[in-house]
Amino acid sequence: MNRIKEILKEQGVTINELADKLGISRVTLSTQINGTANIVSYEKIATALNVPMWQLFASPKEIARQAKNDLCPHCGMPISIKTTIEKA
């Protein structure tokens, strides 16, 4: 099961709007949302919704934990992000 409908609702986006953004019909998108999408389709949907693909399948609890603790959704280990500022 995926969370695409929940993400659409959270973002205030309709299925029609997402289908238009993807360049597919609402019927095709609805069919994909209901479980017939392949990995490429899920990647396109995630990109259009501006979320990592794993969030299409994670529970809201997992997403909240990730956002709060910066933990890897796969292994649960902390993610360390280092930034480098270059002087011009």
Describe the structure.
With 88 residues, this protein is mainly α. The protein is built from five helices and no strands. Helix 2 packs across helix 3. The model has no long low-confidence stretch (mean pLDDT 83).
Question: Helices, strands, pairings?
Answer:
Blueprint: H1 4-11, H2 15-22, H3 26-36, H4 39-49, H5 60-69
Secondary-structure element series: HHHHH
The gyration radius over C-alpha positions equals 16 Å
| Secondary structure tally, helices | 5
Strand content: under 5%
Mean pLDDT: 83
What gross morphology would you assign? Answer: globular
Concise description?
This protein is an all-alpha fold and 88 residues long. It contains five helices and no strands. Helix 2 packs across helix 3.
Defining key terms:
globular, 88 residues, mainly alpha
